[in-house]
Amino acid sequence: MSTFVLSEEHEELRAAIRRFCDDGIAPNAAEADERSEYPWKSFQAYRDSGFVRLPYPEEFGGDGGDAIAYAILVEEVSRACGSSSLFVLISRLATEAILAHGSDELKRRIMPKVASGEWQGSYCLSESHAGSDVASMKTHARRDGDEYVLNGSKCWITNAGISDFYTVFAKTDPDAGHRGISAFVVEKDTPGFSVAKLESKMGMKGSPTGEIVFDDVRIPAGNLIGEENKAFAYAMGALDSSRPVVGAQAVGIAQGALDAAVRYAVDRQQFGQSVAEFQGIQFMLADMATRVEAARMLVYRACAIAEQGLPGASKAAAMAKLFAGDTAMAVTTDAVQVHGGAGYTRDFPVERMMRDAKVTQIYEGTNQIQRVVVARRLLDDAGA
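The chain above was modelled as a monomer; its predicted structure follows.
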């Protein structure tokens, strides 16, 4: 349990979510991973629990939870199942630009369905040749009367083939670089929209990741999010908001691995005593716990800064995502080591957690990109 000084309401929320996750999410985690299948049983339990409403505004049927409450939700689901945590955070990411910049009509059409769990969404920014270099995207949209026509493709799309709508970034001024990007809502049944392939991944195997294609996809002009050619800022703003949440995901995975390692060390007997009695194991567990707690503090701090609109949100978000992702990889690797040979088998959850942890160092901006963000903000603050 965190030692971060949370409000009583936040602590009660964590306890309630953890009880739900232990009963409704964790029992399905191994099966989803083994079969590489979307954990529908977990999603249905999540929707029925009412926690699906937590991160959405009350005006659209949500609970209006604050940033730390949302981080707790993602953290606790991640502790039980990394794949399931993606259906918690990806729909919220898909709505970020809509909530911040979309028209009232677009919000009324999309948001109540997402807040109720009726609809899920995806965030479509990356392309095969435009990952960290977003401005080099090739997907484009042209205005044709009261419609836009989209052509191109997006890759590494979480929830591909599952989502009911896709927030898509495309060039509306191909020669303007990042100043020529716009954002649109594309619904799944729109003619010309298709899922080209699904990736075979190392981890997060219960969450589909795929390439989607737009072949003369016509959408109403009202599906434009905000203004034409302004969406690079929308995309970066969404990532600044979501990076602490990915940090929370990493913390949850690391906490799950730490919990499993402690249980195993206590139960496992060698040389006539519990493995937990060996100082070498105790030091490993102490280091793991310290790193998890430090990562959690960075995540909550970034959430609090963003929630209060304080300066330094971008740097804090990058630090949280960077440190938490590296922590998740280190802690899950050590958890496998504590389990010894057993940790290298699928009989124990730590090998799945180790595979799931790796992606937290890669998506939402690689950890190398996070270091670039932190360094630039430091130099900006120094007037360099």
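The mean pLDDT is 95.
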